[in-house]
User: Which sequence fits this backbone?
């Protein structure tokens, strides 16, 4: 029988004493030479440096003069950091803070301390904010830290509004900013806000943030210098009037203006999807994003952070005109949790989309093409084009759309002034109570069940929300086209 005795703390302390006792068998010198400081000499031991750092091991194994002379001069590191690094090499201990985290990563990369670099990276990720992310992003590029680079890019995209208002936003390189604004994940801001951020960034690069030059000259300079960057803006999401203003200001070329007018005609007048795709296919790659709408869901709090869910809803809605012009007409957390308010805001609006999120984590809803009409008899009304859907459910099933039953004459919606929205047929599939706090799900009453579910089964009742009536509404959003904004 054997047992291993370990004394890491004493070993660490002994090596610390060895480092501090400069006359104890030292055989190498590290000299810190910074312009503003007198040279500082650290006496240390080749054996420890070489086994702890690939950088120093490479120095000692080569015929470099530093190896032969027994000293090396370093001008790109402060005395404090050199002391921290030597302490780490001798004792394995390193104190990291918000103030030294970035430089710790830089030094770790220089001296090939992969473990410390990983620790520094994790610390930076845990403490990054909108002011520091631009500089960290640049460091990740400089030292080839792909993991940190990806993290920073994702952070900027997710927090673009706040990052674009930070004092360091202009430090982001053009290539990275181009990648950021080209990302389909940048959905939390309107295209107008994204363009404003890009213009502010460009002004800073051209030292024009406080210029007294006319807007025309400023915008022309921006377009000439950063045209490839501007081509990542989805100008197809602006109105014709706004585009005309951009042309007059010199921000959009006549060529792009002409193409946008053709695009608007095909999309909004002809509403010809095939023709639209043919139009896009003939565009050069450098201009393609100008004519590609982001998969954003207008102002939804429920699905705004999921490109998958936004993309699925856009696909299922199919009606591009409705999708582009719909707005949030009712939100329970803002407008109130009662059926009367719901109907006062949502009745007689025509095509309407309902999204429900429960406190248990389910997300589901439905679309009616005829809309709510609480003044009618409390009957089910046939809606040929209605559907219900699940985006997130307890069973982990993927997002799915379920069409109205073809042979059920009452399948669609129910007009009932005393409740929230009801989708169903002979029975309700989704029914929201009068206080918009809960409801019932009995999947299969008016909508097509998946093949693995049976009507009135427990599984069917629990599929959408996890239970028949033991679920609580966290948020309910209703979307329809407000004619004022069309």
Assistant:
């Amino acid at each position: 029988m054997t047992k291993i005795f370990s004394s890491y703390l004493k070993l660490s302390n002994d090596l610390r004493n060895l480092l501090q006792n400069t006359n104890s068998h030292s055989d190498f010198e590290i000299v810190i030479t910074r312009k503003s400081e007198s040279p500082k000499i650290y006496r240390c031991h080749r054996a420890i440096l070489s086994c702890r750092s690939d950088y120093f091991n490479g120095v000692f194994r080569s015929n470099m003069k530093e190896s032969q002379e027994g000293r090396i001069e370093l001008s790109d590191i402060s005395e404090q950091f050199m002391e921290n690094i030597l302490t780490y090499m001798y004792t394995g201990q390193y104190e990291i803070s918000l103030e030294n985290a970035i430089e710790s990563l830089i030094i770790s990369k220089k001296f090939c301390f992969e473990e410390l670099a990983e620790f520094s990276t994790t610390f930076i990720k845990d403490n990054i904010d909108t002011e520091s992310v631009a500089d960290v992003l640049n460091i990740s590029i400089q030292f080839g830290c792909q993991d940190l680079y990806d993290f920073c890019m994702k952070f900027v995209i997710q927090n673009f509004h706040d990052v674009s208002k930070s004092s360091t936003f202009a430090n982001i390189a053009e290539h990275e900013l181009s990648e950021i604004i080209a990302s389909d994940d940048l959905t939390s801001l309107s295209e107008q806000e994204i363009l404003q951020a890009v213009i502010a960034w460009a002004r800073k690069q051209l030292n024009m943030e406080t210029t007294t030059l006319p807007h025309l000259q400023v915008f022309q300079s921006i377009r000439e210098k950063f045209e490839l960057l501007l081509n990542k803006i989805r100008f197809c999401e602006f109105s014709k009037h706004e585009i005309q203003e951009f042309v007059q200001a010199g921000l959009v070329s006549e060529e792009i203006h002409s193409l946008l007018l053709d695009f608007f005609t095909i999309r909004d007048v002809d509403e010809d999807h095939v023709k639209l795709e043919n139009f896009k296919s003939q565009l050069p790659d450098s201009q393609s994003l100008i004519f590609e709408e982001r998969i954003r869901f207008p102002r939804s709090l429920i699905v705004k952070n999921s490109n998958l869910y936004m993309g699925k809803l856009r696909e299922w809605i199919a009606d591009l005109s409705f999708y582009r012009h719909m707005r949030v007409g009712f939100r329970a957390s803002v407008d109130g949790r009662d059926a009367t308010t719901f109907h006062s805001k949502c009745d007689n609006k025509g095509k309407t989309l309902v999204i429900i999120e429960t406190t248990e984590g389910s997300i589901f809803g439905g679309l009616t093409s005829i809309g709510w009409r609480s003044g009618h008899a409390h009957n089910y009304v046939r809606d040929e084009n209605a559907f219900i859907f699940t985006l997130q459910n307890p069973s982990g099933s993927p997002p799915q759309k379920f069409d109205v039953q073809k042979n059920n004459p009452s399948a669609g919606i129910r007009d009932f002034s005393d409740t929230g929205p009801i989708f169903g047929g002979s029975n309700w599939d989704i029914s929201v109570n009068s206080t918009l706090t809960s409801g019932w799900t009995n999947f299969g009453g008016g909508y097509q069940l998946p093949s693995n579910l049976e009507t009135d089964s427990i599984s069917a009742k629990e599929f959408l929300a996890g239970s028949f009536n033991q679920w609580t509404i966290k948020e309910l959003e209703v979307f329809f086209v407000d004619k004022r904004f069309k």
Q: What stands out?
A: The chain has 21 helices and 14 strands. Residues 141-291 form one domain.
